[in-house]
Amino acid sequence: MTSLFSNWSSELAQCRVLLDTALRILPAVTCAVLALNLYGMLIYAEDLAFFLFSALAAGVASLATFSSAAMALRNVHDLEGQLRTQQQFLDTATA
Predict the structure, then answer these.
(1) pLDDT tens across 42-80, in order?
(2) Where do the H-state alpha helices sit in 1-95?
(3) Would you give the DSSP letter of residue 15?
(4) CA distance 27 to 64
(5) Are 17 and 76 a contacting pair, CB within 8 Å?
(6) What pTM does this model have?
(7) b/e for 16-51, b at 16 or more Cβ within 10 A?
């Protein structure tokens, strides 16, 4: 019950920074993986299906991770807003 009334702003800030960093880094990592797969397709033409499937799987996994992180970040922003509103309400009620 006490966790219900504690200040969660530092935990939310840490989560926001982590998700923000992931959303910034993920596109670069995805491009690097896709470039390596393209390189593999060009060098090892006999294994084209493997590299094509690998690139497709990397793209789908990256898209799923990016959308999941974006939704989580939006939820963190919403929760921070609700926490701010609740804190203002408590400050007004105790004043």
Answers:
(1) 999 899 999 999 999 999 999 999 999 999 999 999 998
(2) 9-43, 48-94
(3) H
(4) 12
(5) no
(6) 0.77
(7) beebeebeeebeeebeebbeebeebbeeeeeeeeeb
